[in-house]
Amino acid sequence: LKEENATLRSKINKLQILSEAQAEKMRKLEKKLQENKIKEEKEAQDLEAMVQHVEQNLQLMTKRAVKAENSAAKLRQENALLQVQLRNYQSEVEALRSAQAGLAAAKQNAEVALEQLLRVTASSRSSLRQLLSGAESLQLVADLLSSIDRISEVSEDGQ
């Protein structure tokens, strides 16, 4: 009976030691779980801040794209007006050439005006092309940022 009692006490001691080890392991795991929760919360906050930053950039780029499109429309109107003026001046130059061959000074002034209009027209066309190219680039960046936002939403739904 004493032997059995000693064996049982030995088993009880072993079980107590095992229980304490498991309790310590449980405390460590709970601590690690808490640390992981804190880490995940911080990552979620960082991700949210990044998404907000991306959204702000997208809004800013959208505003820039709208402004660029408005500027392009104004330049197109100005270009059309300049084209009309150019045609009018060309007609005027031709009329002056055929009707008043003797007025060299008027002819020279008309040619100077024509050259200036041609330079202005060429410059406005170049500016218009650059502006349209910039608007296309801004649209591409806006589409890219929009895609990033959708990817973030899909990632959040998956977790």
Automatic annotation (TrEMBL):
GO biological process, one term: positive regulation of cilium assembly
Chain segments annotated as coiled-coil in the UniProt record: 12-116
Any Gene Ontology CC annotation: early endosome
The keyword Thylakoid appears for this protein: no
InterPro entries cross-referenced by the UniProt entry: ENTR1
Keywords: Coiled coil
Keyword Coiled coil: yes
Domain of life where this protein originates: Eukaryota
UniProt family annotation: Belongs to the ENTR1 family.
Protein name: Endosome-associated-trafficking regulator 1
Source organism of the structure: Serilophus lunatus
Gene name tied to this protein: Sdccag3
